[in-house]
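User: Show me a protein chain along with its predicted structure.
Assistant: Here is one chain, sequence first, then structure tokens.
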Amino acid sequence: MIKDKSAPVPKICYEIFVRSFCDSNGDGIGDLNGIISQLDYLADLGIEALWLTPVHPSPSYHKYDVADYYDIDPEYGTIDDFKRLLAAAHDRGIAIYLDLIVNHTSTLHPWFSEAKKGPENAFRNFYWWKSESEIEALGISKRDISDDSQVVYPWHDNVNDEEKYYGLFYVGMPDLNYHSEELKEEIAKIIRFWLLEIGVDGFRLDAARHIYPEWEKDLSINFWEFFAKEIRECRPDAFTVAEVWAETEEVAPYFKYLNATFHFDLSFALQRMLIAERDEEIVEKLLASFALFEKYNPLFIDATMLTNHDQDRIGSVVGGHIGKIKLAASILLTLPGQPYLYYGEELGMLGTKPDPYIREPFLWSEHADDTRHTNWIEAHFSTPNTIAPLSEQMHDPESVFNHYKTLIRLRKSEPALAQIFAPNLHRICLHDDQMLAYFRPHVERSLVIIHNMSGYSKNLHLPEDKTGFTQIIFSTDPSHSGELAHETLAPYATLILAPTTGQPPAVTEQ
């Protein structure tokens, strides 16, 4: 869906795994009122949009198996609580994106409860059903695992039924069948309800490449044409960002109908680079992806991230190394795109799979009896013994939190960093693959960004056409402030330079 360039696009987004963020009623489970209570914190951090993981009634802890699209899970609150959250967020200039799951439902959804009764049921065609012989004839009884699904045998038994149902992600998540026009109309009603009656600002779209099963996967993009048309007719300014967990070439066509997609190739490339302490020609790869995206939508928005709720946390990826945790943030927040922060990244939270342990409680303070803390799971990775809680980091100018806060403020104040459409990015060659450098040109003020990815001090030799960039506006190397006075950069440090003439005071972490 091509978006009007004049429409506002929130620039700094924050993913909240609702169950783990903030508890308001003492039951140990994060909830909507808990989020409301922390909106001032999020606004102060510089957040401009929230992506909430699913809030609908669901039998699972993560709630990606929806049982009712029109309500809020009682664990999280009520529809009135959601409306209060929306209003309070909007008062602070924060948009709300609802996680919408249209690839599948829960087996407890009334549609499936009806469909499983038999082939003659009116809701049968809302899902995929095939006999054993049909499955074998099509050669689709098993599949290769993918990054987004570890299920090998996606066909599941229904008691006393000669047909099996298809569930790509889990036996409790039957896939919806969009050959049904009746189903499409139900989805249209859901879109209209949340956009018009409730007033959300947009949707994060789960499993966007799996709308149709793998043997009909080319049809999935056609579904988003239908989806975009429904949005255009009821709220043209609504924002869509999709999970298309695939390589860039497969992702690009989705921009024809959607505003943004998450850049998984970039996420994994940054992780590899931080581990190896070497550039992977990431600027060249980004420019190639931008050119491809632009073919489908000249106003594409690249949704960038370090990790999300399905990936090992970036803090653990880099072994808890604070220098690398800060460097990861520095790269993410100085590259083009619309950055998404996973809750707790601003604290350097840790976690590796299985999934519950990459979704551990947010650390508000060192006090175990802090009523904001959630305790639905006992944290194995992010505890007060391993991570300084927010209450401590807020008062430490060298903390991960204040590093994020400073970078966000800088990104929002510098037009060259804030540019979303037509990404402004050029490689700067420093003849050292342990140095990552790029140019962000802008008519108001262009910037040079340099990252030392290694554990050693590195020499700086700017190319001749960039030697006029000597005014330091950001540095994590304490030896650099004001004017560029020497040509070395400390390990894992970032330096942002502007042209010498007429510059405001520098922003440094000292």
